[in-house]
Amino acid sequence: MPPDDVELRRVFGHFATGVAVVTAQSGEGRAGVTVNSFSSLSLKPPLVLFSLTRSLRSLPVFLEAGRIGINILAAGQRDISHRFATMGADKWADTPLSVGPHGAILIDDALAHLECERHEAVDGGDHVILICRVLDVRANPGDPLMFYRGGYLPESGGRGGSTLGRSADRVTRARS
Ligand SMILES: Cc1cc2nc3c(=O)[nH]c(=O)nc-3n(C[C@H](O)[C@H](O)[C@H](O)COP(=O)(O)O)c2cc1C
């Protein structure tokens, strides 16, 4: 029998990732979503990917946008990750932003910024895989925010990695 959704999610969560907020703007408005499905894909051409659940309210914006911003979050940006993962929240209030040279929406103080254009949208089961061509990149000094087994690292209070997986700050995932 195939594993059920709860078990799949639990086991998938053992793969530690960074956290990014992807942004887009189209005629339908502005969208920003926390993702941990971001991955580099190709150097020539320069491609990256992330996947968005089909139930995401802002999916149409990403499918139409001319420019997509990828903001790789720094360790101190847990609040921004939480804000952009909360359905129905005013994700943009109090979020310090700028527009990059290629027109993508960028979040201040991120660990790295990528400005992209959509390359291809590919079927990924209950998700859509967005493959994007990278137009410009910038990295800043600092440490990454990470996600592991349903919680953020580093933990609040800055304790070390010896408790990984047992006491990482838990979050309730808004993903379907
Ligand atoms: C750490 C973390 C990683 C997430 N990664 C993804 C992801 O890769 N793809 C996705 O569709 N949703 C992901 N989510 C959930 C979305 O952020 C959330 O459903 C979304 O912001 C809701 O947006 P909406 O208001 O446009 O529907 C993640 C949430 C968290 C906390």
From TrEMBL:
Domain Flavin reductase like: 12-154
Organism domain of life: Bacteria
GO MF entry, a single one: riboflavin reductase (NADPH) activity
Keyword tags: Oxidoreductase
InterPro entries assigned: Flavin_Rdtase-like_dom, NADH-dep_flavin_reductase, Split_barrel_FMN-bd
Pfam families to which the protein is assigned, alphabetical: Flavin_Reduct (PF01613)
Similarity-based family: Belongs to the non-flavoprotein flavin reductase family.
Protein name, as recorded: Flavin reductase like domain-containing protein
Organism: Rhodoplanes roseus
